[in-house]
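Quick one: co-fold with flavin mononucleotide.
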Amino acid sequence: MNAKYQKLFEPITLPNGETIKNRVVIAPMTTESANPDGTVSDAELSYYAARANGVGMFITACIAVSPNGITFPGQFVGFDERQLPRLRLLAETIKRGGGKAILQMQHGGRQCPPDLIDGDVVSSGTVGNPRNVDAAGNMVVPRELSDAEIRAIIKDFGRVTSMAIDAGFDGVEIHGANTYLIQQFFSPLTNTRSDLWGGSIDKRMTFPLQIVNEVQAVIRQAKRRDFIVGYRFSPEEFETPGIRFDETLQLVDRLAGYNLDYLHVSMAQVDFHPRMEATSQAAMVTQLHDIIDGRVPLVAVGSIFTPEQAMHALTLGADFAALGRVAVIDPDWIAKVDAGREDEIVQTFDAEGADATAVPELMRDWILAKPGWFPGTE
Ligand SMILES: Cc1cc2nc3c(=O)[nH]c(=O)nc-3n(C[C@H](O)[C@H](O)[C@H](O)COP(=O)(O)O)c2cc1C
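Sure, here it is.
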């Protein structure tokens, strides 16, 4: 290994006492390739097996916690015990590579395509979603969740945590990012409530924090202090109203006092500065590092393709660098850096070579359907 990348391979101990062997995380990435019954498919197992070697933490694709939270075709789901045997295989497959297996838990809220959830799209309010249109081409307007339904979804996060423990995962990640339901509750754009669950910034934090509480209660009951809990968030929205970075700093300050094992900031580029109004224009990762003040490790993601870029994330203040698209493109990224062969890292997606890198066919088709998403598909 090139000495300048040594820090990427330094172990770190999480607040719950678990040691992660290095600073390289594979970011959660949906494959759209589960079996039709929502169980983990063989193609997915091959995909994870090909990427697991040498990883510090491997965060899975998001699992839908509730039937009205399915967001992607071919998303695996966690509604009942029938999913357990295949989840067990997934956890085993990842752990065989030597890293921690973390199951990402998600509910899509107003982002769910109506045809995947019998048309009943729900959210923290009734704000129409220009990014979600139904089969007739009309903008989807969600239905506001009732208090009882909100409490049931919180329980769903707990139930899937319990399944993750039974399946042998090392931890879970709560998906509070990328505009899905948890973010919809935190956002003044989509949370138009005036009850316990909305209104002031404190009330908009109620749903996310209650989920953290529920997940931790399940872990306490299982007597699994070693079980890792992470929380992923997006730092800004570009709509008005919308989440501004100063509000995110308040959320992160609260989360850092909640006994979590890591926080995970979701960005398109790891070195972004706030693009909307903010008190400080310093790099967001650096500001997050400062407000966290050593209370909990920070994972950062966004256009990391080279070990230099991963090191830059650490220099800005992250404790872990997460790989997204490059981990799909080149399953041997970590092995190559470890062996000093970083010049051989592949950075463009090769549709012809997808089989050789165990990218499931449906995932490959999804990638190719969005030209420019992955380098090499423009
Ligand atoms: C194919 C694909 C699927 C993704 N699925 C998820 C997901 O299930 N959960 C999530 O939080 N983010 C998901 N993301 C976002 C990634 O975790 C990551 O934040 C994003 O790709 C930016 O990192 P990158 O620039 O290294 O690709 C997905 C990204 C890709 C490319």
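If it helps, The chain has one domain: 3-368.
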